[in-house]
């Protein structure tokens, strides 16, 4: 399973990259705003800076909501860097735009997916990635993992190549469960990735090994 980091924070992207486990980055307008990235030129430069850190795909979301505007904005984003993936909302014009970009060989990520039917449409439009939002479904007492399982079944039934990008991942067990279910990619915060490192028996075991080694040197 690929690991994408879901942030526009450059230092966190660098840290995940240096850990050696980063396969790509997803951003959205809220994440860009959180980092204080405003204005056309700053936004463009920020996407370029992200592409300098990672070798993987970088999802850049359009703000437009009509087909013509999405095409114009998406083409400009895709022209920035070969790693840019045009992120499109799961609405009628977003699906039309996904088909347009797919026919042109430009990668897309259809976002804000909350049902298997939406994921089926995204695959038929030739999206590179589909982003079901696991955490936001869990937030409203709906089983987000079940949605990912349904999408996996549908895509496998027909051999759709669209990659299931489990989004809105919040914690370590989301990552483990996405891997068990067969998501192609997960995108989440750095904290969820580093939480995978933790086990008290690892820490206790290492402390014991080092103590035994130190004692043996003194003997
Ligand atoms: C997906 O690409 C989104 O950026 C993201 O995963 C949303 O996560 P959130 O529900 O934690 O905001």
TrEMBL record:
Pfam families: TAL_FSA. It is found in: Cytoplasm. The active site is at 87 (schiff-base intermediate with substrate). It is an enzyme of class 2 (transferase). Keywords: Cytoplasm, Pentose shunt, Schiff base, Transferase. Its EC number is 2.2.1.2. It catalyses: D-sedoheptulose 7-phosphate + D-glyceraldehyde 3-phosphate = D-erythrose 4-phosphate + beta-D-fructose 6-phosphate. InterPro entries: Aldolase_TIM (IPR013785), TAL/FSA (IPR001585), Transaldolase_3B (IPR022999), Transaldolase_3B/F6P_aldolase (IPR004731), Transaldolase_AS (IPR018225), TSA/FSA_arc/bac (IPR033919). Pathway: Carbohydrate degradation; pentose phosphate pathway; D-glyceraldehyde 3-phosphate and beta-D-fructose 6-phosphate from D-ribose 5-phosphate and D-xylulose 5-phosphate (non-oxidative stage): step 2/3. It comes from the Bacteria. The keyword Metal-binding does not apply. Belongs to the transaldolase family. Type 3B subfamily. Transaldolase is important for the balance of metabolites in the pentose-phosphate pathway. This is Probable transaldolase. It comes from Flavobacterium rhizosphaerae. The lineage of its organism: Bacteria, Pseudomonadati, Bacteroidota, Flavobacteriia, Flavobacteriales.
